[in-house]
Design a protein that fits this description.
- The structure is a single chain.
- With 115 residues, this protein is mainly alpha-helical.
- It has two domains: 51 residues, no CATH class; 43 residues.
- The protein contains five helices and two strands.
- The protein is globular, with a radius of gyration of 18 Å.
- The C terminus is likely disordered.
């Protein structure tokens, strides 16, 4: 079985324009920040005002499971399942908790001191 690191290193990132195109967002509606990330311009809202509304799913919880499978795992699993059944999916998650990395709780929302 491959480790998480080996899986990540074997992955090939998609260009952000390819991802935007799959979501029906034109190149002119993007503010590119390199090849792999961009901000979507607010004009997109007006351009798509005649299209049916999308569905928004919020995933929230107070505490993760004892194994640490919390909101991020649920969100990614749900997104993959919706894509699998043919839905067009865009997933947005904030920075996952860094508590396990630093041995403290709530590090993702705390200020990180600089050296």
């Amino acid at each position: 079985m491959l480790s998480d690191l080996e899986i990540a290193q074997a992955a090939t990132a998609k260009h952000i324009e390819e991802i935007a195109s799959a979501l029906g967002i034109d190149r002119v509606d993007l503010d590119l920040h390199g090849d792999y990330k961009a901000k979507v311009k607010l004009d997109v809202i007006a351009k798509n005002s005649k299209k049916p509304d999308a569905k928004y799913i919020g995933v929230t919880a107070v505490t993760p499971t004892p194994l640490g499978e919390g909101k991020t795992v649920t969100t990614i699993g749900l997104s993959q399942a919706l894509q699998y059944i043919g839905k067009r999916v865009c997933t947005c998650i904030r920075q996952p908790s860094q508590g396990p990395t630093f041995g403290i709780k709530g590090a993702a929302s705390a200020s990180t001191p600089t050296a």
